[in-house]
């Protein structure tokens, strides 16, 4: 375990910064999303105008849904009574973000129940502003395309869960997906809480070789986010929960939740624990403490948000959504069921954009490059308990993540042996592992999971994981990642030079920011730096495309 570099799963985050300091892509401009929220509000018919003033933003004016009585006519400001105007604070928890001023209909009587509804509307405006601030933070640090955008009913419900979680110290179980939604929800909670100035540590339990004690030490005072906890066998999961329970110093019996008192106190030496689980079933470690549960909505529950999400993916990966997106692309995205949720959507749309350079992505392109997904039929409710990470076309190992895998001592030997298919070395390994490494050496550029590889080699997935760790000292996913980077380095140095994006795609990476991160962490330099240094050494000049 000690061979694993301590920082490779960690993100150290600070404050969000002021709105003026953050770039604001059009699809993440909170005033546009708040405008939609106000226009769709059931109480829009109560006011003539609504004016929202957020700190650092221009005022937003939204017309009401019903005019005043025909005989009332316009009135001057001096003629209006105080009852005509209602002002509500736009607060996220105790932090003031702005004010919402409503010019009510002339004869509308503001009853207590109306005031409560309008106060909730102002709170929703604050939740949207806070969520999109966290999304801008994600984009600035290239942690994946934003997926918590849109104003669907499912997103507004998630907003309320995020706000409630920011002021609740209990550990959190994020149920329904381990993809981008879970990571971005965890970060939104972290950035909205008092722990925002402390470390946010992400650990993929299927990939890391560290012990839970080291995770907790690195997350001290901040947030520890775990994913991949349900990726192994039941025995693997029970072992992980026992280790985590021991590291947290919790008693084995279930903890009865006391009103207002978290089971795991967040003291000066502790951290906030968040765990993402693909299934919506309660985990084996449920009884270790008093959990706060958040059910993450699938994309099939957010059809109204899909056009925005599609644009966000294109923009994030450097493509002009106005030039590349078509009605056919939006129709396909809105009608496909996306079992892999946001991670699969990002992979599929980014792949289409790369395979159709400088062209609008039309129906023929989708039919050529994603025929299986086109044949899978229209949108249908996803079975979240049985949903896989993605289709067989979607590489689970390439889900965008904020961290890469450091090169482990000794793994360079196995990377070379697998790439060169060194039969004399591989033959000394157990038969199942030998078959696995030969298969990976031929197919490392294709989408691949441990389960698929185990099936090819006629062994169980849990036994295959054991073989990798016991004989190679490295997990399957880390070895696959390092094989891809090693081959990418070779391709980058070939003549004539190829575009970095094409190199990434050819070795199996479909998220280019993730490719850059992995390449830098494994080789100590960016792909462009690697190519430039080589060109200087041989006296040629490469141009990074």
Question: How do the helices and strands line up, and which of them pair or pack?
Answer:
Blueprint: E1 10-12, H1 30-39, E2 47-54, E3 60-63, E4 85-92, E5 95-104, H2 112-140, H3 153-166, E6 172-175, H4 180-192, E7 199-204, H5 212-218, E8 223-227, H6 234-248, E9 272-277, E10 292-295, H7 306-316, H8 321-324, H9 327-335, H10 341-355, H11 363-369, H12 371-375, H13 411-419, H14 423-426, H15 431-443, H16 450-457, H17 461-472, H18 476-492, H19 500-506, H20 512-523, H21 527-538
Parallel strand pairs: 6-9, 6-10, 7-8, 8-9
Antiparallel strand pairs: 1-7, 2-3, 2-5, 4-5
CATH topology of the largest domain: Rossmann fold
Main sheet, how many strands, which sense, barrel? Answer: 6 strands, mixed
CATH superfamily of the largest domain: P-loop containing nucleotide triphosphate hydrolases
Classification by helices and strands: alpha/beta
Mean pLDDT: 78
Strand content is 5-15%
Shape estimate: globular
Oligomer: single chain
Q: Kindly, what is the distance between the CA atoms of the first and last residues, rounded to a whole number of angstroms?
A: 39 Å
Domain Sigma-54 factor interaction: 148-354
Domain HTH araC/xylS-type: 434-533
Pfam family, one: AAA_lid_14
GO molecular function, one term: sequence-specific DNA binding
Description of the molecule:
Strands 1-7-8-9-6-10 form a six-stranded mixed β-sheet, with helices on both faces. The chain has a four-stranded antiparallel β-sheet with strand order 3-2-5-4, covered by helices on one side. Helix 2 (112-140) crosses helix 4 (180-192) and helix 15 packs across helix 16. It folds into four domains: 19-64 and 83-140, no CATH class; 153-248 and 264-295, Rossmann fold (3-Layer(aba) Sandwich), CATH 3.40.50; 299-395, Helicase, Ruva Protein, domain 3 (Orthogonal Bundle), CATH 1.10.8; 411-538, Orthogonal Bundle (Arc Repressor Mutant, subunit A), CATH 1.10.10. The chain starts with 9 loop residues before the first strand and ends in a 7-residue tail after the last helix. The protein has 545 residues and is α/β, with parallel strands linked by helices. 43% of the residues lie in helices and 11% in strands.
């Amino acid at each position: 375990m000690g061979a694993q570099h301590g920082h490779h799963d960690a993100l150290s985050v600070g404050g969000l910064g002021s709105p003026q300091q953050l770039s604001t892509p059009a699809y993440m401009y909170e005033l546009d999303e708040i405008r939609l929220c106000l226009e769709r509000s059931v109480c829009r018919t109560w006011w003539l105008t609504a004016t929202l003033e957020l700190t650092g933003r221009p005022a937003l004016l939204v017309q009401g849904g019903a005019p005043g009585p025909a005989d009332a006519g316009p009135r001057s400001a001096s003629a209006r009574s105080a009852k005509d105007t209602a002002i509500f604070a736009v607060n996220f928890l105790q932090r003031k973000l702005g004010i919402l001023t409503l010019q009510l209909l002339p004869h509308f009587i503001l009853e207590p129940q109306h005031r409560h509804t309008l106060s909730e509307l102002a709170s929703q405006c604050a939740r949207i502003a806070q969520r999109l601030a966290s999304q801008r933070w994600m984009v600035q640090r290239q942690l994946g395309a934003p997926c918590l955008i849109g104003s669907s009913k499912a997103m507004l419900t998630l907003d309320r869960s995020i706000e409630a979680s920011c002021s609740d110290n209990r550990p959190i179980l994020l149920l329904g997906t381990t993809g981008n939604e879970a990571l971005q929800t965890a970060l939104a909670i972290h950035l909205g809480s008092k722990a925002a100035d402390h470390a946010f540590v992400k650990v993929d339990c299927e990939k890391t070789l560290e012990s839970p004690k080291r995770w907790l030490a690195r997350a001290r005072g901040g947030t520890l986010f775990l994913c991949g906890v349900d990726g192994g066998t039941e025995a693997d999961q029970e072992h992980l929960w026992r280790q985590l329970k021991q590291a947290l110093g919790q008693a084995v019996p279930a903890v009865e939740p006391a009103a207002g008192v978290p089971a795991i106190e967040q003291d000066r030496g502790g951290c906030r624990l968040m765990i993402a689980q693909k299934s919506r079933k309660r985990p084996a470690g449920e009884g270790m403490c008093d959990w706060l549960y958040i059910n993450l909505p699938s994309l099939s529950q957010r059809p109204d948000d899909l056009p925005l999400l599609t644009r966000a993916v294109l923009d994030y990966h450097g493509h002009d959504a106005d030039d590349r997106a078509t009605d056919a692309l939006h129709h396909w995205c809105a009608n496909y069921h996306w079992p892999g949720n946001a991670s699969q959507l990002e992979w599929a749309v980014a792949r289409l954009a790369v395979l159709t350079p400088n062209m609008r992505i039309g129906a023929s392109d989708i039919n050529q490059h994603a025929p299986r997904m086109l044949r899978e039929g229209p949108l249908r409710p996803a079975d979240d308990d049985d949903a896989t990470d993605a289709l067989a076309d979607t590489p689970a190992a390439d889900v965008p993540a904020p961290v890469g895998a450091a090169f482990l001592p000794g793994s360079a030997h196995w990377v070379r042996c697998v790439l060169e298919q060194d039969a004399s070395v591989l033959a000394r390994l157990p038969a199942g592992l030998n078959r696995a490494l030969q298969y990976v050496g031929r197919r490392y550029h294709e989408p691949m999971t441990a389960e698929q590889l185990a099936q090819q080699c006629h062994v169980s997935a849990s036994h295959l994981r054991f073989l990798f760790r016991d004989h190679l000292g490295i997990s399957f996913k880390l070895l696959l990642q390092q094989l891809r980077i090693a081959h990418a380095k070779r391709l980058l140095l070939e003549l004539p030079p190829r575009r970095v994006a094409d190199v990434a795609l050819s070795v199996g990476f479909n998220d280019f920011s993730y490719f850059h991160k992995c390449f830098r962490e494994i080789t100590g330099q960016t792909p462009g730096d690697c190519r430039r240094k080589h060109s200087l050494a041989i006296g040629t000049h490469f141009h990074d495309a």
